[in-house]
Amino acid sequence: MARIAGINLPNDKKVEYALPYLYGIGLTISKKILKELKIDDNKRVKDLSEEEVNSLRVEIEKKYRVEGELRREVISNIKRLKEINSYRGSRHAKNLPARGQRTKTNCRTVKGNVRKTMGSGRKTSAQKT
After folding, report:
1. What distance in Å separates the CA atoms of residue 82 and residue 96, rounded to the nearest whole number?
2. What kind and span of H or E run contains 56?
3. By CB neighbour count within 10 A (0-12 exposed, 13-18 middle, 19+ buried), where does 98 fall?
4. Alpha-carbon distance 7 to 121, whole Å?
5. What is the pLDDT of residues 39-85, one digit of tens each?
6. Which domains does the chain have, with CATH numbers?
7. Which of 55, 63, 66, 99 has its CA 20 to 30 Å from the CA of residue 20?
8. Is the alpha carbon torsion for 67, 90, 94, 96 positive or negative?
9. pTM of the prediction?
10. pLDDT digit string (tens) for 1-11?
11. Cα-flanking dihedrals φ and ψ of residue 12, to 5°?
12. CB-based contacts of 93: which residues, under 8 Å, 6+ apart?
């Protein structure tokens, strides 16, 4: 079992699709890393040699911010936006979309699933049908 940045990669998946299990690495970066290290994309994680796993670990730790470090950075950026009272910060504080999405018809679950029109509300399990 390959363990990179504190995350266990699934053994039965191809390496190309297992690397995005790390926070901060997507499919494009995964392909780029494998190309740089000359590791076959179609190889399964369980078929990787110890040297290949170590080279992956070193490459990722050296070049990319992943997992805890990246999460801390994102949280601190959001905290900074809230502290300077920016519009985006206030949207984050209210737990609403921050990037210009419409909120009249979408994001119902974020707003508490409020439905104003007749017949569109959900019936609770306690009510008679």
Report:
1. 13
2. helix 50-63
3. middle
4. 42
5. 998 899 998 889 999 999 999 989 999 888 999 999 999 999 999 99
6. 3-67 (1.10.8.50), 69-111 (4.10.910.10)
7. 99
8. negative
9. 0.70
10. 788 888 899 98
11. -90, 0
12. 82
